[in-house]
Write a structure and sequence with these properties.
Blueprint lengths: L1 E2 L3 E6 L7 E6 L6 H16 L9 E5 L2 E2 L5 E3 L11 H8 L5 E5 H13 L4 E6 L3 E7 L2 E2 L30 H5 L1 H12 L5 H9 L3 H25 L3 E5 L1 H4 L4 H9 L10
Parallel strand pairs: 4-7, 8-11
Antiparallel strand pairs: 1-2, 2-3, 5-6, 8-9, 9-10
Length: 265
């Protein structure tokens, strides 16, 4: 179960079994009780399509969760602060082992496994900017010490305010919503993702300028992380990045000559 800031994706599969999946967008926030009801509905939709029992559940979530399983903070859905995630998952999947972790950390593990490398940095660009770091085959800093919050690296001291309260975080500059807000300022009106994508394809100056700022910020973060840990590979992912053709190549160009080993996925 991939719990994101905009949508939730659920998938069930097993060795030799068919894949069953469903995706839904979060409703307008009216409290965690309503969100939990939406999660329950999604789980039922997948579970009812299965012929075999569920043996285990893995959950990816961008929220900061403490050792008791309580959400400490989730800027993308702030009403979840104080939410008993562990207890709620136990009720959703009674008698089934459930494990959860930061989505950026899990993405980095998956990318490292797929690439066959032991040292990797991943940046995921979507509703926020997530990140993960794998060093010598292990997550850094490690689940007991918290997730790798690459999205809250400061890339512009005079930059826009982030939802964490600081200014100039990578997330405040390069996330999907931040990019669309910058496009709206340039156009003098709201801009949708679909309009931005079409304008980029037509090479409209406002669209190009908007995206270049995001990609430059990501390149700055990637460069800094590369200088710190010298990974074998740096990957860029996330729904926003994947939905814009040429996004990763723009980041690569900004980082050219500095992060010379960068590989994009």
């Amino acid at each position: 179960m991939d719990i994101g800031g905009t949508k939730v994706a659920l998938k069930a599969a097993g060795p030799g079994a068919a894949v069953h999946e469903t995706v839904f967008r979060w409703p307008s926030f009216r409290g965690t009780r309503h969100d939990l009801a939406a999660l329950s509905s999604g789980v039922r939709a997948v579970h009812e399509s299965l012929t075999d029992d569920v043996e285990a559940v893995g959950v990816a979530i961008p929220a900061t969760v403490d050792r008791t399983g309580t959400v400490v903070t989730w800027p993308g859905r702030p009403g979840w602060a104080g939410f008993d995630l562990a207890g709620s998952l136990d009720k959703l999947f009674p008698g089934i082992p459930v494990r959860y972790a930061d989505d950026g950390d899990l993405a980095a593990l998956a990318e490292a496994h797929e690439a066959g490398v032991r040292d990797l940095v991943h940046l995921g660009v979507g509703t926020g900017v997530g990140g993960g770091m794998v060093l010598d085959g292990r997550l850094c800093p490690g689940s007991r010490r918290g997730s790798c919050e690459a999205g809250h690296m400061i890339v512009d001291r005079r930059g826009p305010e982030c939802d964490c309260g600081r200014h100039g975080c990578l997330q405040a500059v390069a996330s999907g919503p931040a990019t669309l807000r910058r496009a709206a300022v340039l156009c003098g009106r709201d801009v949708s993702f679909t309009e931005l994508r079409a304008a980029l394809a037509a090479e409209r100056p406002w669209a190009v300028d908007t995206l270049e700022e995001s990609c430059a910020a990501l390149a700055a973060a990637a460069t800094s992380l590369a200088e710190l840990v010298h990974p074998d590979r740096i990957t860029i992912g996330g729904g926003f990045a994947a939905g814009l053709p040429g996004f990763v190549e723009r980041v690569r160009r900004h980082a050219s000559g500095v992060v010379c080993r960068c590989r994009a996925v």
